[in-house]
Write a structure and sequence with these properties.
By secondary structure, the protein is an all-alpha fold. It folds into three domains: 234 residues, Tetratricopeptide repeat domain (Serine Threonine Protein Phosphatase 5, Tetratricopeptide repeat); 86 residues, Alpha Horseshoe (Serine Threonine Protein Phosphatase 5, Tetratricopeptide repeat); 126 residues, Serine Threonine Protein Phosphatase 5, Tetratricopeptide repeat. 72% of the residues lie in helices and 0% in strands. Helix 3 packs antiparallel against helix 4, helix 7 crosses helix 8 and helix 17 packs across helix 19. It is globular and about 105 Å long. The relative contact order is 0.06.
């Protein structure tokens, strides 16, 4: 009898144990967002661009837990990075179906948690970036609209979920100053952004105490986007650098940290920092090759007047499978050979600039226009230009002062001389010297197809904004975006920056 009771009790315990296991398994089988150890490890590998290792880890993780949307998030990020970095149509075509399937799968998930919509907004913003790269504007617009929808839903349901601020803040900033070319997108979404609101949202997340491992990388993304907006639209280069610098000190080991640090250093005039970072970039072996870093290193060396700058542009033009920045790289190769005094080779690279790549982004449009002109630069003027771009202000000014203005035959070179002097005195905060040169450039260049007059008006708007002369500032911002109908260079960029300036002034 006692033996029978013991057996019954033991059997009951076993049944209860297996019931508990079954209950837990069924509960766990529901969709959820969990950054498991493998997901966290894969997230780090993403930033190191070791994407094959990411694929292997996530394949194993999917078998262990097919209902974890964090796995889909990481998988999708790997696909995005492959296409974004390579810009290779073959890679795009190879992964398009898998990418679409991943996004559709997550869109079909029923899961009342803030992470779901954040993941979906990330996925659609990623797709928008890629569609823009491949000149698929309508698809990009649809993706941005979808991202906004998910973010706005989250704000209503989970208003205290700060990770949303990364994407929502960025899009809010972008839509605060939309160029006329993209007004259709703003109307499609039905949204007009506010720069200060967007920056505050992003900063709130960056300053939050959310510091678990998944947030470390998300905050790096947010800081990079925040820095880009601060420099390009809010004209706050110091804030841009202060935002990215502390988070990218491991640039010797992590490829995307290297890219982000070098990119912002490039924009804010820290060429020596950019050079140091790129010279220490991690090797490509075992990771996805990021040849854009070679392009950036070529730019950095060209600004230093290093004679081997051409080597890095050649690496980029030979090995890169995409189309963007190719025209720009060939123009820089032409400049490198002009600085060496080899105009024959320089003209060959201008011809290659016209023939190769696509003119979608501003850098490539400008490069193609210059290459079609095939107009050799006066050497001292070219030296001044590249040294100014590297923020070697004193050297650039010395080169400009050595030029006899009457020796410049072409109108473009005369405008370059006037404009570049204005920019240098502007950077030196010698506004009383900068303003007359900007005014001369506007007068001399107002009917030309070159950007100098329009950009001079934009810069005058910035000076008067800094001086608190709001009406003068508004006058020149409006002039920059409305007056120079002949200008064919950097049109969207000038318009966007002028609109951002007017927004800062309250129109």
């Amino acid at each position: 009898m006692r033996l029978s009771n013991a057996i019954e009790k033991n059997m009951c315990k076993r049944v209860l144990f297996f019931c508990a296991l079954l209950f837990n398994a069924l509960a766990w089988a529901k969709p959820h967002f969990t950054m498991s150890e493998n997901c966290l490890k894969a997230q780090t590998l993403l930033y190191e661009l070791k994407l094959d290792q990411v694929d292997n880890l996530m394949a194993a993780e999917s078998k262990l837990d097919a209902d974890n949307i964090a796995v889909d998030w990481v998988k999708e990020s790997a696909i995005f990075l492959r296409i974004f970095i390579s810009e290779d149509k073959v890679v795009y075509d190879k992964y398009s179906k898998e990418w679409t399937k991943l996004v559709k799968h997550v869109e079909g998930v029923q899961f009342n948690n803030a992470w779901l919509n954040l993941v979906l907004s990330d996925m659609h913003i990623h797709q928008a970036f890629i569609h823009l790269k491949f000149n698929e504007s309508f698809s990009a617009g649809a993706d941005i609209k979808a991202a906004f929808k998910y973010l706005k839903e989250n704000k209503k349901k989970f208003p205290s979920f700060l990770p949303d601020n990364k994407n929502l803040g960025f899009l809010t900033c972008l839509f605060s100053s939309v160029p006329a070319k993209y007004q259709w997108l703003a109307k499609l979404i039905g949204f007009e952004g506010d720069m200060n609101e967007g920056l505050n949202e992003m900063n709130e997340y960056l300053k939050s105490n959310l510091n678990t491992r998944e947030h470390i990388w998300m905050k790096l993304d947010a800081a990079f986007l925040y820095a880009m907006v601060q420099h390009h639209l809010n004209k706050s280069s110091d804030i841009a650098w202060a935002s990215i610098e502390p988070l990218t000190r491991n640039y010797k080991a992590v490829v995307l940290e290297n890219y982000m640090r070098a990119t912002i250093a490039n924009y804010v005039g820290k060429n020596e920092e950019m050079y140091t970072v790129l010279m220490a970039k991690p090797p490509y072996a075992g990771s996805t090759p990021f040849y854009y870093l070679d392009y950036l290193l070529g730019i950095s060396k060209l600004r230093r007047l290093d004679t081997d700058a051409d080597v890095h542009f050649k690496i980029f033009t030979v090995l890169y499978k995409g189309k963007s920045y190719l025209k720009s790289a060939y123009r820089y190769l032409s400049w490198a050979y002009q600085l060496k005094g080899d105009n024959k080779t320089a003209l060959t690279y201008y011809a290659m600039c016209v023939k190769n790549g696509v003119a979608l982004i501003e850098e490539d449009k400008q490069a193609e226009r210059e290459a079609k002109e095939a107009l050799p630069w006066p050497i001292e003027l070219l030296k001044a230009r590249v040294q100014y771009d590297g923020h070697y202000i004193d050297k650039a000014l010395t080169a400009l002062n050595s030029i006899n203005a009457s020796s410049l035959v072409h109108k473009k070179h005369k405008l370059e001389l006037e404009y570049r002097k204005a920019r240098i005195y502007h950077d030196l905060k010698q506004y009383n010297k900068a303003i007359p040169f900007y005014e001369i450039t506007i007068e001399d260049g107002k009917k030309e197809t070159y950007y100098y007059a329009a950009y001079s008006a934009l810069q005058l708007g910035l000076i008067y904004e800094l001086q608190g002369k709001k009406e003068q500032s508004k006058k020149y911002f409006n002039m920059a975006k409305n007056t120079f109908s002949a200008n064919q260079e950097y049109v969207n960029s000038i318009e966007q920056k002028a609109k951002a300036g007017l927004k800062r002034l309250g129109k």
